[in-house]
Design a protein that fits this description.
Strand order of the largest sheet: 1-4
Radius of gyration: 13 Å
Shape: elongated
Strand content: 15-25%
Order of helices and strands: EHEEHEH
Number of strands: 4
Largest sheet: 2 strands, parallel
Number of domains: 1
Helix content: 25-40%
Structural class: alpha+beta
Distance between the termini: 26 Å
Number of helices: 3
Length: 73
């Protein structure tokens, strides 16, 4: 049986955020601010706390902004 550290998580993070347009008009929805931090930061924190170490972000819309904030590693 695999440990969680051996698994890879895929996060679909490429939508337009149409329903969230008033909140995220100028950024991808995963970068919507929640208590001063991007939503994606909280999600990655929870994934790491669960013992998972490999994450692939499947970005599309404004993916360059996600990469600029979180990098390639």
């Amino acid at each position: 049986m695999q440990s969680l550290a051996e698994l890879t998580v895929a996060i679909l993070a490429g939508g337009f955020g149409t329903r969230l347009r008033p909140v995220v008009a100028n950024r991808p929805k995963v970068l919507a601010e929640v208590r001063g931090r991007p939503f994606l930061a909280y999600l990655l924190d929870h994934i790491a706390a669960a013992g998972l170490r490999s994450v692939i972000l499947c970005t599309g819309y404004m993916g360059d902004r996600v990469q600029a904030l979180f990098g390639d590693t």
